[in-house]
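Components:
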Amino acid sequence: MPERASEVQERLAAACRRRHGPSAQIANLKPLSAGASAETWRFDLERGTESLPLVAQLFTGEQQFAAALDKRTQGLVQQAAHRAGIATPRIDFILDETDGLGEGFVAAFVPGETLGQRIVRDDRYTEARDRMTGQCARLLARIHAVDVAALPPLPCDPPADMVEKLAEIHDRYGVRIPVFDLAFQWLRDADVGEQPPRLVHGDFRNGNFIVDESGLVCVLDWEAAHLGDPMEDLGWLCMNAWRFGRIELPVGGFGRRDALYAAYEEAARVPVDPVRVRFWEVFGTLKWGVICQWFSHQFLSGEVPRLERAAIGRRVAEVELDLLDLLEGVEPCR
Amino acid sequence: MPLNRPCGTELLAAVRQWVQTVAQPANDETRAYEARIAANLLDILERELTLGERFAAGERSGLAALLGRDGPLDELNFELSERIRRREIGIGNAPLLAHLRRSAIAKLEIENPRYSAYRRARRA
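Structure:
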């Protein structure tokens, strides 16, 4: 067993014994995908004849993007969301200093498909795709209705401040991209005003869903959660970057905007404002563009010398065309 | 005499072939994923070798027409960015939008010609 795996095995076992009693053992530990800012381990917690499938998310110490939550706060948000009846994996426990594993949390393992590419194409998900737009709308309506008082302190910036913070990060990389400049000016000119702050997932998109043949099972990754305008989640969900090639289906590559808006209005009992959704889709697309720049920067500075970072750095051009399609109305609002 | 063969694109093809076969293990998902990325980056490099110069020339002449002066590509790009930031030129300017669209499409021809928005733009 590689050194890191045996260290994780030993410390996770101790952490589990602290919460589940001295007879708890862990088995079948294996790494899942190495995410951008966390490592994920799948394992079974065994106690007597019981076996509980779990996942540990550990913070790797790598630099995170802008307003990303620390792993502990992320775990607390997911815990509060799960307790409020949101379909997201149950948090088993949140790591603390005694565990010696850094920041992180342990959650229930939920089987299913997460790869967006397969979700939008595989025949086995044909029925799932038909259901997912309505399921996404209802899940979002529930997230946006979570009692804010039940949440840990979260970032809560007015839209105009979010735009300026993003512009600041973009400027740090010292690369001028005229389409980005144009999009920033467009966002500054769009007056969306402030909304009463609601829980916003912040990364609600195809790729962060667990899906089976019956459709959406749950949503993952609360790293970008914050308080703000619920329309932000709708705009982010519709970005072309998460359609996995199915550009004609704006909702995650599986659904239509009007169906999403209608189902959301029915579930949330508030009207969807397509102008505000458009604002957030432009903002989200630009944010993804700046994240691509960040990945490129991490690669070039040697901070994260992975090929994947280099490849994503070259995706800025995709974002440029997506932004123009939004600003010029090639992408319809409804 | 010219450089000896295999030429640059032939070398690239050879390395790509190697990456796609030898470096692509069947039983290691992470490594296979990285090998696919590596092959993809070689594709970008190959397109950059064939299209890069033409792209830069087109970009420069487009910027020069828009700005009314010539200069090195970096300098012209910076000036356009500045003018947008100073609001001297903006969303209401049709030649600006036409230039940015042409430029994004030309870039994607190198970066990722399979990208959905690129294919839609080429159909339009």
